[in-house]
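re: ur question from earlier - yeah i can do the single chain one, its not a big deal. heres the input i used so u can compare w yours
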Amino acid sequence: MGAIYKRELKAYFISPVGYVFMGVFLVLSGVAFAASTLYASTSSTSAYFTYLLFSFIVLIPLLTMRLLSEERKLRTDQLLLTSPVSLHAVVLAKFFAAFTLFVLTLGLSCLNFLTVLPYGALNGALIFSQLCGIVLIGGAFCAIGLFLSAITENQLVSAVLSIGTIFALLGVGLITPNVQNNTLRAVLKWISIFDRYYTFGYGLFDFVSVFYYLSIAVIFLFLTVRVMEKRRWA
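and the output i got, formated as tokens:
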């Protein structure tokens, strides 16, 4: 697993993908931060993290689209399927490689906070809570993107599917307040990734939401293993 993880992480930096992801992420986060804090003359970071969350619609597919679809297209997946390493280890190695790059880039984007220090104090506990929520959601989206990359050999198709899925998951939270049926609204609110982030936005560490995000990641990683297992026996 360690060898595959290192190979996948290294692959991001011997191809343009890793640099493009980091560049786009940092540019979007910088623009979002400037618009939500500097131009608004506030030290509140709530709007910034909301903008950042919706930028994942484009960012996460960029990070995950090649993970398994490229292997399938180049037929190098046969080496993985016949290697002595378990499929669980292969999937986890690819997931953690993408997740590591995501977390590292998110960490670099935190340098944005330094620009507001001369103008006012930041709420460190609130920012930490919001970052935890962003990291958990990013992990769930990486798992979803990895699964969608496993079901196609076309990177563009994988990216489009990931964009649509992430957009739908975040969009549920936007339409929930307009749903008239109480039962349907309660169901949508329960499954809404965006609604569950509200607790982190208020500085509350909600363990139910943590379990929910982790469950999404585990379910899609499990489905990815099943897809690869089916291909192995085929």
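The mean pLDDT is 86. not sure if urs matches, ping me
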